[in-house]
Hints:
Six copies of one chain form a homohexamer.
Chain A: H1 14-27, H2 34-39, H3 43-58, H4 65-78, H5 82-94, H6 99-122
Amino acid sequence: MSTVPLLSDDAADPRVRAVFDDIRASRGTDYVNRFWRALATDPALLETTWAEVKRVMGQSSALDGLTKELIYIAVSVANGCGYCVHSHTASARARGMSDAQYADLLAVVALAARTNHLATALQVPVDPAFDATRA
Amino acid sequence: MSTVPLLSDDAADPRVRAVFDDIRASRGTDYVNRFWRALATDPALLETTWAEVKRVMGQSSALDGLTKELIYIAVSVANGCGYCVHSHTASARARGMSDAQYADLLAVVALAARTNHLATALQVPVDPAFDATRA
Amino acid sequence: MSTVPLLSDDAADPRVRAVFDDIRASRGTDYVNRFWRALATDPALLETTWAEVKRVMGQSSALDGLTKELIYIAVSVANGCGYCVHSHTASARARGMSDAQYADLLAVVALAARTNHLATALQVPVDPAFDATRA
Amino acid sequence: MSTVPLLSDDAADPRVRAVFDDIRASRGTDYVNRFWRALATDPALLETTWAEVKRVMGQSSALDGLTKELIYIAVSVANGCGYCVHSHTASARARGMSDAQYADLLAVVALAARTNHLATALQVPVDPAFDATRA
Amino acid sequence: MSTVPLLSDDAADPRVRAVFDDIRASRGTDYVNRFWRALATDPALLETTWAEVKRVMGQSSALDGLTKELIYIAVSVANGCGYCVHSHTASARARGMSDAQYADLLAVVALAARTNHLATALQVPVDPAFDATRA
Amino acid sequence: MSTVPLLSDDAADPRVRAVFDDIRASRGTDYVNRFWRALATDPALLETTWAEVKRVMGQSSALDGLTKELIYIAVSVANGCGYCVHSHTASARARGMSDAQYADLLAVVALAARTNHLATALQVPVDPAFDATRA
């Protein structure tokens, strides 16, 4: 159960309906997933969040679409968001993620988690050599 | 300050020295960064951690080296490990990360953090459509 | 399923029963939610935790009750505690949280998550101007 | 040290300079804090982030400005962002946060952290009574 | 539902089957829990992860087996991993954890969460007295 | 720098002074570390937090003092609290933690972090076998 009702198309007001329609058109599918139906509890939040997702993930940019999905999964795992892990793993597969690439993703996430905890446990001070701002 | 002394080459025993030498050889540099000098407090932990880093990050695999560094940074940011953010941002740059790619990474990490928190706040249940295990 | 049985009133010993009764009296309801029934696995932990909740959340203080619930939800979201998100969103509504206030809460939580991750990714050093301890 | 140089006014291009000027005008101060000077590494990210901060935090809305700052601090603490804790504690004071209100904030954050960890340790299932979507 | 199918014994290739058999032999049980059946999506990741679990948790070392399980639970709670909380609470009980020890664990985890958040909120600088590296 | 001044003995009012004196007496040292001097910004919060630390960590209970410190460190690492990592690593050493025990702690924390992230990435559903509440 969610903390708000999931808005159906019939119950959606025109602002919400416009976003749902744009999600469908952008993705070439009739399906609007539950995150958007929950977020529709506030039309302004729905609009700004969808606009940001479309701008960052949907447009061609310096990183290809699959790489961006892998980064999205990595953050979602570390933040413990089960919903996001599921939705973006599905998106990555839809963008062509192979089993071998997924295995690589898991291996890097697991390794980073391990060294993150070790560096924090040891409180290692940052090496001056990493300073990007030195002349 | 760290919770353990940072081991110098002179103070390192042969097992530790062998790892330090392998780090230098693998990276083509004389510099051994502080994470390894702190981890050397336990030679077994140093050996298994370095072996895992070398295996996951150093070998050619389904994802290219730069993509793996971007995923590493993403996890490190979400886990709040300042040391790891610095060291892997430096590694990504050494592997050719452009300013535009870095800007893309920041945009995806920021967006994921935002939707992670929204999905958790709304407690959105996972859509059956995301089930990878359905026939 | 939980890691311990949820204690029913019938199975509760007098110390536990006294806390359950105080929860009922303080809230003006017969319902004791599952968190307390699980925590009752250790009567001392139940007593100290309920005493703290009652002291911090139940008493009139410098912040009003609704504001304290909003802060509680915010921490629970960032810590990824689904149970706490649900129970305190319900509490906030019981204290009069409007849909517009909830939308505001979501917007601030999402924004903070975004800038938290950006500041950590960029490792921005704290401005001396923020030093509250300067003369 | 940060992962990118902090951009001075002299080095800023017109897009960045426009944001810096709007920060100054909106806040009625000459000071532009380091977060924005680091974020300026990507003008688009600077523009969208500042626009969001201004929209969410700067406009009058269902929650007053101080309450929004308290929520911002709470998320930043739970996410472990030292920079954000400092900058938003300073903002809350600038918006009139009293010592008693700050003590209340600390007490609620500490209590939420405690019960978040207990509910997660006990894996308490959500009570149906919390379901906001029931008829 | 998981993001990958849970591999049955019948579907397992020889490398995976060898790990499943070693799990059974090491634990003296026929049951292979779902974590390993999911991880089997990548035989190499399954092998390295099981080898590490066996090496760290299964061997006699400076800390006894129960203490290591308690530490494992503590990390899993703070990282919000429900699966791990359940599996390692069960392991701790199998290694003899009493109700009183479990209550102690919960009390320490709750206290640490509370002071972690307070120290982060207050941004307390580390005392030089804690420096382990001073002469 | 902290978000509040660190209270000196001279500036402390009688309630704060009483806690500082009890810290000294309980620990058999003249040193009061900075966490308490910052927390003293609110005497009530100082009193309840110190009382809880003394009750949970200072009294003999089902787990010995060193084990409790190891659990405290583990939570503090996963929550990313540098101050707490330092102070409780120092406490664990003061209670006799050997280098081998510290190495074990690091190994378990690193392993737990790794499997926590893997279980979250794979979204493994909890095995019914772990249900402690079954008859």
